[in-house]
Amino acid sequence: KVFDVVVVGSCMTDLVSQAPRLPKAGETIHGHKFFIGFGGKGANQCIQAARLGVKTAMVCKVGKDFFGDNYIQNFKDNGVHTEFVKQSSDAATGAASITVDDAGENAIVIVAGANMLLGAEELQEALPAISHTKVLVCQLEIRPQTSLQAMCMAHDNKVKTIFNPAPAIPDLDPDFYRVSDVFCCNESEAELLTGTSVASVEEAHRAGQELLKRGCGSVIVTLGPQGCVVLKGGESTLKHVPAPVVTAVDTTGAGDSFIGALAFYMANHPHMPLEEMARRANLVAGVSVQDIGTQTSFPYRRDLPNEYFQE
Ligand code: RIB
Ligand code: NA
Fold first, then answer.
1. Which atom of ligand 1 sits closest to the CA of residue 98?
2. pLDDT tens, position by position, 170-202
3. What ipTM describes this predicted complex?
């Protein structure tokens, strides 16, 4: 295989304000810190996988602007292959306005910009990478049809797929389930997709069973500090993987750290049980929540204990 992990997805410039709490509608509040960072769910997941030590490529579109130029350099700095990172003068690089409160919770508005211009033509160019990777990862910050097409290309070539339906949309094309080897969502995405409440481990398990029925190979529903539940096709036992107990400073991108780590384990340790991959991915994401920022808080292999990388 040419690559271990290929991500077809989004890049965003994160404009982050830290404030004591999230503002209400019509309200202005004082924050205490502002910073700009590299974000976007697709890129975040790719960078986390790369930092754990696998060969990655990103398929995405940024603007022909300062933020786009900077983003390409960021991929290079992280060892991500950039041949399929395209620049367009028809739209600006995607941006995310993020507010993080003192409890580490966040609220985000994204303006996808150039991300929405990624389409069939770029996928065709990237086909050699998409069809010759160990793992392909997609999300929903680009046009859903582009994500689905990439997932189908991978699936047709027997490439393992991870689908992260984030941010969730109510009318998700049912074909997404069919081409997902691992369908990984958080509690609110699971709620939107199943129309049921997902607040506890039991409810997550029930929602996971419903998603599994729709045709995916396995389902992971993440529950923040409650860890995640893992469901495999053909098995009915409840597998709850608890999360490490940590003090969260900024949970932005924790889900992306989890997915990036999961992709790393699927590529590098394909025979490891999925719940063990999820357990280790929880540990990696647990490191990311203890620092501010998104990619700035994602750990490198050298920051983590050796046993995270043993069979
Ligand atoms: O998942 C976190 C990411 O969501 C942020 O980096 C922001 O860019 C938004 O896309
Ligand atoms: Na963080």
1. 7
2. 999 999 999 999 999 999 999 999 999 999 999
3. 0.98
